[in-house]
Design a protein that fits this description.
The protein has six helices and seven strands, in the order E-H-E-H-E-E-H-E-E-H-E-H-H. By secondary structure, the chain is of the alpha/beta class. A hairpin with a 5-residue loop joins strand 3 and strand 4. It binds adenosine-5'-diphosphate (ADP) and magnesium ion.
């Protein structure tokens, strides 16, 4: 019998970035580290409010996976899913479930076969379609960090008027394949301090 409740993380990484560029670079580095897992299929489930940085993260990840830098990675909010060809015949699916009420709507949109071999599937607002995702996946949760205790803010108004530029990122591997890949990733130092 499988245990009840949400899957437990096998590997958890708590990171922080201080700029969009740092999040891009961090995600690009992760994309490079995930390359060995692409043939077997990979799923990244992204969580975080609007403007947290989910699309930006996927943009960086795509670069690290080898997507041609001239190919734009726009937000798929209105088209639900975007497909990209990666080197070596692999594929990237970038899904935004924000407008989906649940798995039934995913199927109605013809998106039930998003995950598979040779494919990296990145799903924004993944919680809305969690039942359609394999348990062995990497969760990426981004959250703006209003109070940055470690150094004085150059723009004190940021925490009052908007989310500012500091983001906490929590990466969790929920299965053995994801865990092996995440554990093998050497996190660049800019993830902590940039
Ligand atoms: P989401 O897809 O979560 O709605 P986006 O990636 O579209 O969010 O937008 C994130 C916004 O936040 C971008 O305008 C980006 O420049 C800005 N931003 C500022 N600081 C950061 C950071 N540290 N990491 C990610 N995005 C950041
Ligand atoms: Mg987005």
């Amino acid at each position: 019998m499988s245990p009840a409740g949400p899957p437990q993380a096998l590997v958890t990484l708590q990171l922080r970035t201080r700029s969009a560029a740092a999040t891009l670079a961090l995600a690009e580095s992760l994309g490079q580290a995930l390359r060995p897992g692409v043939a077997g299929g990979l799923v990244l489930a992204l969580e975080g409010d609007l403007g947290a940085g989910k699309t930006l993260f996927v943009r960086g990840l795509a670069r690290g996976l080898g997507l041609n830098p001239r190919v734009a990675v726009p937000s798929p909010t209105f088209v639900l899913a975007q497909h990209f060809d990666l080197p070596g015949g692999a594929e990237l699916e970038h899904v935004d479930a924000y407008r989906l009420g649940g798995v039934a709507e995913l199927e109605a949109a013809g998106l039930e076969d998003l995950c598979g071999l040779g494919r990296v599937t990145c799903v924004e607002w993944a919680g809305r379609v969690a039942e359609a995702l394999p348990e062995d996946r990497i969760e990426v949760e981004l959250s703006p960090c209003a109070t940055d205790d470690s150094r004085p803010s150059p723009d004190a108004a940021a925490s009052v008027n908007g989310p500012g530029e500091v983001r906490n990122l929590c990466l969790r591997a929920l299965g053995p394949r994801s865990a092996a890949l995440l554990a093998g990733w050497t996190v660049p130092s800019l993830g902590e301090g940039a």
